[in-house]
Design goal:
mainly beta, five-stranded mixed barrel, 1 helix, 8 strands, Primosome_PriB/ssb, DNA-binding, NA-bd_OB-fold, Single-stranded DNA-binding protein, DNA binding
Length: 173
């Protein structure tokens, strides 16, 4: 049976990321991403809010991009997979942490501090889906395409109604 390990988060960055390098030269960085859930309490009618903090790990070229462009408070879209690590603390007790290993990232919001304005766009960056922890990851930038000026479509010529001929060719299912 096939299984799926996929996480999608949209949240705000808790602090500026710091890129580090391992002895073999590979870059990595971690950041905390806050997601907030809002709801109305059924009994009291009060608005409730709950913030969850997620530890996200970026590797290689994606880590370098995050270190360069992502700042505290920035809204961020992240796709990745869950991974739980285990180690022993100073007293010899087993300690666990669950992280999101990022495979794709999209900058959301404007381009604050990046020279110029943008109406809600951002850059998308990711690693190929064939990278599941083995081999060198592939960093792929999806630059935002320039937006052409909106153009009006010419008005269709009026035609006589003949029944089924007026229906669109697209079938909705």
């Amino acid at each position: 049976m096939a299984s799926v390990n996929k996480v999608i988060l949209i949240g705000n960055v808790g602090k500026d990321p710091e890129v580090r390098y391992n002895p073999s030269g590979g870059a990595w960085c971690t950041l905390s991403l806050a997601t907030t859930r809002n709801w109305k309490n059924r009994e009291t009618g009060e608005r409730q809010e709950e913030t969850e903090w997620h530890r996200v790990v970026f590797n290689d070229r994606l880590a370098e991009i995050v270190g360069e462009y992502v700042k505290k408070g920035r809204p961020l879209y992240v796709e990745g997979r869950l991974k739980t690590r285990k180690w022993q603390d100073k007293e010899g007790r087993d300690t666990y942490t669950t992280e999101i290993i990022a495979q794709e990232m999209q900058l959301l919001g404007g381009r604050e501090g990046m020279g110029g304005g943008d109406e809600g766009g951002g850059g998308g960056y990711g690693r190929g889906s064939d990278d599941m922890g083995g081999g060198a990851p592939r960093a792929a930038a999806r630059p935002a395409a320039p937006r052409p000026a909106p153009q009006r479509a010419p008005a269709p010529a009026p035609k006589a109604s003949t029944g089924f001929d007026d229906m669109e060719d697209d079938i909705p299912f």
